[in-house]
Amino acid sequence: MVQVSPFLLVLFLALGAHGLSAKKCSLTGRWVNDLGSNMTITSMNANGDFSGSYYTAVSTTLEKIKVSPLLGSQHLPTQLKQPTFGFTVHWTFSDSITVFTGQCFVDDDGKEVLRTMWLLRSHVGKRGDDWKATRVGTNIFTRLQPQQ
Fold first, then answer.
1. What is the 3-state secondary structure of 48-91?
2. Residue whose C-alpha is closest to residue 48's, from 77, 24, 28
3. Who wins on pLDDT, 133 or 78?
4. Which CA distances in Å does 136 have to 48, 69, 117, 132?
5. Exposed, middle or buried by CB within 10 Å (0-12, 13-18, 19+), for 31?
């Protein structure tokens, strides 16, 4: 019985330590996606509502790209370690809006990753052009580390 107790103690500590070290994914901060676009989420309230800014690296417009505001919501921010979320970007330099939905994950190395899908809706002049007004895609965001 003496030999079983240390084994159980080590097993319990190992399982408990793993549970304690599980990092919670936080949306607040600076992010970059796989296309080089930058996003900053600056504030989040207790309900999970947040705001920030988005600077896209890609555009089909001839207008100069500008920083655009974003508004969103995170699901159950105090209860989930890897929450789902959604946000809308109102582009300040074009007549389109993009909505993103996704989930915040923490990988095995403790790095946070946002996996998203988006719909971009552009303005069209007539109903007959509606077929070309919406685009869909995916992006993966990784956290930008503060510069030293």
1. CEEEEEEECCCCCCCCCCCCEEEEEEECCCCCCCCCEEEEEEEC
2. 77
3. 133
4. 25, 20, 7, 11
5. buried
